[in-house]
Write a structure and sequence with these properties.
Layout lengths: L5 H23 L26 E6 L6 H16 L3 E5 L6 H13 L4 E4 L8 H9 L4 E4 L11 E4 L2 H16 L7 E5 L5 H15 L5 E6 L4 H14 L5 E4 L2 H14 L5 E6 L2 H9 L4 E6 L4 H13 L15 E3 L4 E2 L4 H4 L7
Helix pairs in contact: 2-10, 3-4, 5-6, 7-8
C-alpha cells in the first residue's frame, strides 16, 4: 500500500498538470497571431506554420446537441480553414454509433491522409479505428478513449481527474481552514468514466484540507436534468457552503433551480468553461464564482496534430522528432481575477 500523503499526491498531480500545459502550449500556442476568437484557428509559427504537402483529414464527432460539443466541431473546422495545406472532410455529427463507424469506413475507402475522431462511444469505435491504423491512416483520438492502444496514433485528452482536483482546491482555499463546511456536488452521468474521474479528483482534493462531499446527485449533462437534480439536492440539503457542478451546460438548469429556491448562501463552482458562466463570474452577481476549464479546443488540437503527423513533421517547440502519443490538456480554475484570460475560448451553452 502506498505511504504517499494526500498533500504529496496532489503536489505530484500539480506537476503532471504543469507538464500537460507545456505540451499544450507547444501544440496550440506557438504564435501570438490570431483574430481574437478563441474557437477560431491559430495556424502556429516557426516550422509548424510552414506550408507543407496538402493533406486530406477526415473529421467525425457526435452531434452538436449541447454547447461544448458544438464548439468542438466549430473549432476543428476553423482550425482546418487556417491552413492552406489542409483539406478537411467533415462528416455530419451523429450520436448513432453505426453511422459513425460507416463514416470512418468511408474515410478508409477514400484513403484520407489522417482521421480525427471524437467517438460517440470509444469502445464501439475501437475496431474501425484499428482498421484505419492497419490501413496506414493515422488516427487522432479526441476526448473519449478507445479500448486499445493500437487504435490511435495520438490521443488528445482533457483532464477529468484534474477538473475535480482544481474544483476541490479552489473550495479548500475558500474554506480557509474550516473543516466543517458543507460541500455539495452535482455530477454528470455516473456510469461514465469521465464523471467517475471528476468525482474522484474532487474527493481527493477536498480530503487534502479535511473536507468531504456531504450531498451529491447526478444529472445527465442537459439543462432539464440539471434543474431536476439541483432541485432535489437543494431540498435535501437545507444548508450548503460550497457546490461544484460538473458541467456548465447542465449548469443552466442548476442555476434555474437555485433561483427558484431562492438560495444564495453558498459559493458555486462550474465545470467546462461556458461563456454564460464566465460572464456571470465577471459580473459577480450570482452564487457562481468560478468554473474549471475542460477545453473545447480538443478537436482543433487534433487537426493540428493530424496535419503534422500526415506531413511527417514534429511539434516545432519540442526537441522530440515525433508528435507525442498522448497530449493531455490542463484544467485551470477560472475566477473573476483571471476570467479575461479565458473568455475568448469559452463556448455558448
Amino acid at each position: 500500500m502506498s505511504t504517499t500523503t494526500p498533500r504529496r499526491r496532489l503536489l505530484a498531480i500539480g506537476g503532471v498538470l504543469a507538464a500537460a500545459t507545456l505540451a499544450l502550449s507547444a501544440c496550440t500556442n506557438s504564435s501570438d497571431d490570431g483574430d481574437g476568437d478563441g474557437n477560431a484557428a491559430n495556424a502556429g509559427a516557426g516550422d509548424n506554420a510552414e506550408t507543407g504537402d496538402t493533406v486530406r483529414i477526415g473529421f467525425s464527432a457526435p452531434a452538436a446537441d449541447h454547447g461544448w460539443m458544438g464548439a468542438i466541431t466549430d473549432a476543428a473546422v476553423k482550425q482546418a480553414e487556417a491552413f492552406d495545406d489542409v483539406e478537411l472532410v467533415n462528416a455530419e455529427g451523429t450520436n448513432d454509433v453505426n453511422l459513425q463507424i460507416s463514416q470512418v469506413e468511408t474515410f478508409i475507402n477514400d484513403k484520407v491522409d489522417a482521421i480525427v475522431l471524437l467517438p460517440f462511444d470509444g469502445a464501439a469505435m475501437t475496431d474501425v479505428a484499428t482498421r484505419a491504423m492497419e490501413a496506414g491512416i493515422p488516427v487522432i483520438n479526441v476526448d473519449r478513449e478507445f479500448d486499445s492502444p493500437f487504435a490511435a496514433r495520438t490521443t488528445v485528452l482533457g483532464d477529468n481527474y484534474g477538473m475535480g482536483v482544481s474544483a476541490g482546491r479552489y473550495i479548500c482555499q475558500q474554506a480557509d481552514g474550516s473543516t466543517d463546511a458543507v460541500v455539495a456536488e452535482i455530477a454528470g452521468i455516473d456510469s461514465l468514466p469521465l464523471t467517475q474521474d471528476r468525482s474522484r479528483g474532487f474527493k481527493d482534493a477536498l480530503a487534502d484540507c479535511g473536507l468531504k462531499v456531504s450531498n451529491r446527485v447526478a444529472a445527465e449533462f442537459t439543462v432539464e436534468t440539471g434543474e431536476r437534480a439541483a432541485a432535489n439536492l437543494l431540498q435535501a440539503a437545507p444548508k450548503i457552503d460550497f457546490l461544484w457542478n460538473h458541467d456548465d451546460d447542465q449548469g443552466v438548469g442548476v442555476m434555474a433551480a437555485i433561483d427558484n429556491a431562492g438560495r444564495d448562501e453558498f459559493v458555486m463552482v462550474g465545470g467546462a468553461g461556458s461563456a454564460n458562466v464566465m460572464r456571470s463570474i465577471e459580473a459577480d452577481d450570482t452564487v457562481l464564482k468560478a468554473t474549471v476549464i475542460y477545453p473545447s479546443t480538443q478537436g482543433a488540437d487534433g487537426i493540428k496534430l493530424a496535419r503534422l503527423i500526415a506531413q511527417g513533421r514534429s511539434m516545432s517547440d519540442l526537441a522530440e522528432v515525433e508528435v507525442p502519443r498522448i497530449v493531455q490538456l490542463a484544467a485551470p480554475i477560472v475566477t473573476k481575477e483571471n476570467v479575461d484570460q479565458y473568455m475568448d475560448s469559452a463556448f455558448e451553452s
